[in-house]
């Protein structure tokens, strides 16, 4: 009976923790997620600088960072926006990172 309980717990743990670091933007994989998606296009004709602002989360319990467009522009010293994208990465919901990437001049 003890062995059956251990097996059931081991099978249910991934299901329980799968939603802990879940990000709902766009398509996502249950085990691994590495997706870059467009958000907006700015008025600039092109861009050669890149700025990134990220939020990091662990097990859905701790989340830190600043993924605002303003922070990404400041990080890349960008004054005029060409494009804004998001990058979402997660591994079994245990570690999650979502970044705002701004390209511009």
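Q: What amino acid sequence fits the structure above?
A:
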């Amino acid at each position: 009976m003890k062995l059956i309980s251990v097996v059931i717990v081991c099978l249910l743990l991934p299901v329980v923790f799968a939603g802990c670091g879940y990000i709902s933007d766009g398509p996502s994989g249950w085990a691994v997620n590495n997706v870059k998606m467009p958000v907006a296009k700015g008025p600039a004709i092109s861009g050669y600088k890149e700025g990134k602002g990220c939020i990091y989360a662990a097990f859905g319990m701790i989340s830190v960072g600043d993924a605002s467009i303003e922070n990404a522009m400041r990080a890349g010293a960008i004054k005029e926006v060409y494009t804004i994208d998001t990058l979402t990465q997660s591994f079994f919901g245990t570690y999650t990172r979502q970044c705002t990437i701004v390209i511009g001049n």
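Q: And what stands out in the fold?
A: The first helix runs from residue 2 to 18.
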